[in-house]
Amino acid sequence: MMTHLTGWEFAALACAALLVGFSKTAVSGANTVSLAIFAAVLPARASTGVLLPVLIAGDVLAVLTYRRHAHWPTLWRLFPAVGAGVVVGTLFLLWADDGAVRISIGVILLVMSGVTVWRRRTAETGEPAEDTGSRAGRLKARSYGVLGGFTTMVANAGGPVMSMYLLSAGFRKLGFLGTSAFFFLIVNVSKLPFSVGLGLVDGDSLLLDAALVLFVVPGALLGKWAVHRIDQKLFERLVIAATVLGGLQLLLR
């Protein structure tokens, strides 16, 4: 796979890998831009397999950084529904060809952009967080869990879904980052056998991953430095704009 990449294409993937590291330790969900870059440079179906080990590397660094801030009751509440979503996503990938996956990723990116905009407006209006232990809270956790599992399996795009859920549950920044770090590490590692079985992760993709993981580390260090300094509203606007452009590029490609 690496032998077919031009210098500019590898540079784009390296920048996307750096952004993965940054998003894991600073702005969760920003790696939807990385998803768009990977799907634009590589075949859409193959891009999900190449991106997965890069995401896992970022998850490991995020866990090492924020491991003391995870909220495990929330994680245990989400995992069964997420598992169901991953199974549904695997069945979809068994049926879908590269074109269907590309269109699906484009649609997911656009939908997630809309979700992110809605999430930001909700946060700005100060809507009260819902009790996650209530019946409505448990139903919401299951709904978000299934959607998050499906989107993360099909397109590695579960970040915005989980970000919206954690913010609506009233998580502060460090609790948010710690909980999402463990969540995505466990979910992404559990996706590996499915991805190998589907032929999305193989020797060629892992060779490319070995080169790209080197760029995740400086991105994570940059995110750790910037997390208390970044103007998040401006950054989220840039992420949304880049994600919309990426989604439209995939749909019009």
From TrEMBL:
Family annotation (InterPro entries): TM_pro_TauE-like, TSUP
Tree of life domain: Bacteria
Pfam families (alphabetical): TauE (PF01925)
Bilayer-crossing regions: 45-66, 78-95, 101-118, 174-194, 206-227
Protein keywords: Cell membrane, Membrane, Transmembrane, Transmembrane helix, Transport
Membrane topology field: Multi-pass membrane protein
Keyword Cell membrane among record annotations: yes
Localization (cell): Cell membrane
Main localization category: membrane
Family: Belongs to the 4-toluene sulfonate uptake permease (TSUP) (TC 2.A.102) family.
Protein known as: Probable membrane transporter protein
